[in-house]
Amino acid sequence: MQYYVYKNTGRITVYPYLLDVQSDIIGMRNTRVVIPLFPLRNYKGPRADRLTPVVTVEGEEYVVMTHELASIPQRVLGEEVCHLNHQREVVKASIDFLFDGI
């Protein structure tokens, strides 16, 4: 579901969560477009706030790694953790910044 956070069951464990950003009206049943979430406490170096906003999942802050946006097999999405509908505009703005630079 769009703007829901899921546990990452894939091989790349550095990203514990995946944020689903694909519209629910898109009928692709086998894949979803996601943005990985990276723990802020492990993030090194400068961060572009508009491209990589920070969100809170289960009481911990995570960097939305918008530049790592990818289509993945739906089976990689683990347990649904929470939704980020309340931060939808921030996430959409980061995607706009990635593609349009605005």
Automatic annotation (TrEMBL):
Organism annotation: Raoultella ornithinolytica (Klebsiella ornithinolytica)
Record carries keyword Repressor: yes
Family that this chain belongs to: Belongs to the CcdB toxin family.
GO BP terms: plasmid maintenance
Pfam families attached to this UniProt entry: CcdB
UniProt GO MF annotations: DNA topoisomerase type II (double strand cut, ATP-hydrolyzing) inhibitor activity
Name the record gives this protein: Toxin CcdB
InterPro entries for this protein: CcdB, Plasmid_toxin/cell-grow_inhib
